[in-house]
From TrEMBL:
Its EC number is 2.3.1.-. The lineage of its organism: Bacteria, Pseudomonadati, Bacteroidota, Flavobacteriia, Flavobacteriales. This is Dihydrolipoamide acetyltransferase component of pyruvate dehydrogenase complex. Belongs to the 2-oxoacid dehydrogenase family. Residues 238-275 form the Peripheral subunit-binding (PSBD) domain. Keywords: Acyltransferase, Lipoyl, Transferase. It is an enzyme of class 2 (transferase). InterPro entries: 2-oxoA_DH_lipoyl-BS (IPR003016), 2-oxoacid_DH_actylTfrase (IPR001078), Biotin_lipoyl (IPR000089), CAT-like_dom_sf (IPR023213), E2/Pdx1 (IPR045257), E3-bd_dom_sf (IPR036625), PSBD (IPR004167), Single_hybrid_motif (IPR011053). Residues 2-77, 117-192 form the Lipoyl-binding domain. Its cofactor is (R)-lipoate.
Amino acid sequence: MAQIITMPRLSDTMTEGVVATWLKKVGDTIKTGDILAEIETDKATMEFESFYDGVLLHIGIQEGQSAPVDSLLAIIGTAGEDIAALLNGGTATETKEEKVVEEAKPTSAAVEIPAGVKVVTMPRLSDTMTTGTVATWLKKVGDTVKEGDILAEIETDKATMEFESFNAGTLLYIGVQEGDSAPVDTILAILGPAGTDVSGIAANYKVGAVVEAPKAEEVKAVAQEVVVTEQTTSGRVFASPLAKKIAQDKGINLSQVKGSGENGRIVKSDVENFSPSAVATPAQAVAEATNAVTAVKPFVPAGEVFQEEIKNSQMRKTIARRLSESKFTAPHYYLTIELDMDNAIASRNMINGLPDTKVSFNDMVIKASAMALKKHPQVNSQWRDDAMVINHHVNIGVAVAVEDGLMVPVLKFTDQMSLTQIGANVKDLAGKAKSKKIQPAEMEGSTFTISNLGMFGIQSFTSIINQPNSAILSVGAIIEKPVVKNGQIVVGNTMTVTLACDHRTVDGATGAQFLQTFKAFMENPVTMLA
């Protein structure tokens, strides 16, 4: 059944948007998470992603055209589906965004807003967003707020966004506390002159209420993606997403670019017109510093203590809570073994010599673990107060480092996958995790976990068990070193792995037997192809 996609309202004062670029065309197959278009407001350019699977049947707003919020942007459905009724204003499939619009109709009389007071509401950051969660407030009631200050970080299930104020004043009221969720258009905060009584506004304001507020140009707030900022020693650098992308493509350091946008924000033209000739090269800077040193008196320490406080994201809080629970409730013990990787290296080179084939050592570790778990199912278990659950299916979680912490995408039924299938699935899931497009279902149901830091040169380490698993395998780097073979010292390649086990479910001998089987598979990769 066809789904109507409307122009999203990307800030609480946005009334229209411009389609900068369509990244899909009519007839293209669309998957959930695909970027449909880039939408511009006067404040930002943001990628607009699909939350539906299907075929793009219709584009309602062409590139370069503007349209009011909730205008028909696109229709997604099945190939060949008749959408004439939708285009002619007939009854359309009711979508989530339509429900939000219906629920947001005025429900009370107008609330009178005193002069200089600004009411900030929860923005709708995507076409399907109905609620948002305040991850962190960066200001508290009574704080002075300047234009460009970040008020809060707001989370949906798709992204974490910084919510920025373009008003100056005092934060008089907070309507949604940290960790709490609220519907779109709920009162989020009130700004105004210090000492203003806003209790009547806070008590009487309702979602969708008509507000007698100052002119729109006086009330400006916009949500900007967390990834459009960079930290420098002098403070925060603000840049539009499009400017940041162009700077990244051209290798330009945004801290060296002067912004011409509002409050010094760096925009597309600033990056395109940037000339590095005006910036001192590292060599010039060193020369100038050297000359300065020779001209001054002996150095007298006069430094200043500098600290930076970074608020914990919801992801970071969750990681801390779950790992603490695991470490302090599950009795961990560790088993370490060294592997001879010469055969693995030779086998990988041979496999990758085949056309259109690419296998990593991590893929081989995952495959060997899956096969060893089938032979030692007790390692593939979980503890409950009343019973021990033995999983006879193998779902391996692969730890992936992301900007905000750690995610563990899960390969379902790993033991049934070939090496190339494992590689393709890991690449796909890791990409989704790093771009924050992974679905919750893709991170659920693991029975065993692998953490690999070998690519960072780490030779050996231990990990905390990813509950409710009973074990996690820590994989180190492949090291070339002298080894003894057949009584002779020769150059060999070795890799160290450490198995962390929950002693409630996995006894020492069981863990050791699992590692022996894993070692046999890794040192003789041909046995994994049988």
